[in-house]
Amino acid sequence: xxxxxxxxxxxxxxxxxxxxxxxxxxxxxxxxxxxxxxxxxxxxxxxxxxxxxxxxxxxxxxxxxxxxxxxxxxxxxxxxxxxxxxxxxxxxxxxxxxxxxxxxxxxxxxxxxxxxxxxxxxxxxxxxxxxxxxxxxxxxxxxxxxxxxxxxxxxxxxxxxxxxxxxxxxxxxxxxxxxxxxxxxxxxxxxxxxxxxxxxxxxxxxxxxxxxxxxxxxxxxxxxxxxxxxxxxxxxxxxxxxxxxxxxxxxxxxxxxxxxxxxxxxxxxxxxxxxxxxxxxxxxxxxxxxxxxxxxxxxxxxxxxxxxxxxxxxxxxxxxxxxxxxxx
Length: 328
Description:
By secondary structure, this protein is an alpha/beta fold. Helix content is 30%, strand content 27%. It is built from 10 helices and 15 strands. Strands 3, 4, 5, 6, 7, 14 and 15 form a 7-stranded mixed sheet that branches. The longest helix is centred in the middle third of the chain and has 23 residues, at 118-140.
């Protein structure tokens, strides 16, 4: 089978697209014929060796995939079942989706809702599933369209694009923040954003523990100074769902928004989320995401193009979602 293989020997890093024997796949109870994988920000970091994402060498990257079960020792899945995988450290500790086959634990798999084709499930992928987890977190906190506007940072990226589209369809007023407002403004408004702000408004350090309240809630993919500024401008009893670290893992802020405005910071762990919540997120995507929007936010490439796209996503040059036809 064809696979994208990462390796590091004596600190010498390599990326190659090569033929790999199915016998080399790690031990697990379910074998899946992978039809599509995607390139997420974490994949970009791994494939460019920009961050110590990979924990074991050699490694097939790809934190998600969509495909069909070939065999399983689990009673939960049968031959021919369509499944998607998001997270569970695949592509980091366990061989991931950028290959024509994957052998994984059945407990890591989620059935693809019948409303989606396998390709559409891949296009949604970990980014879309994470975006839906963020929306659920806002709803759990009681944030409704009547509460006020919702900010989405990194809005032109994978998580951000799906978040804007879903929130808009649910009736929320969406403020989209991006470092590419001039280039992607039309794209973001087509997804449903009603207001655009440049990333630079939020990305610099601030000594102010509180700012003027601007939004009832937010979905943040950046972390660092951006998240601190987002919290400072969140309205009383608001909620911020944090799911990324595109700007950094640090968070220098104060408790002022939390104790003076009652703001909630909700952390989103899409990698190890429990099965019930995963199923809930995918079922909600089936009803709350306009699949016609997927065409606008998705680009398809073959396996050979992955190294370049990985470099582009780390550089912030990729819009929306990139689906990889692993056989292409």
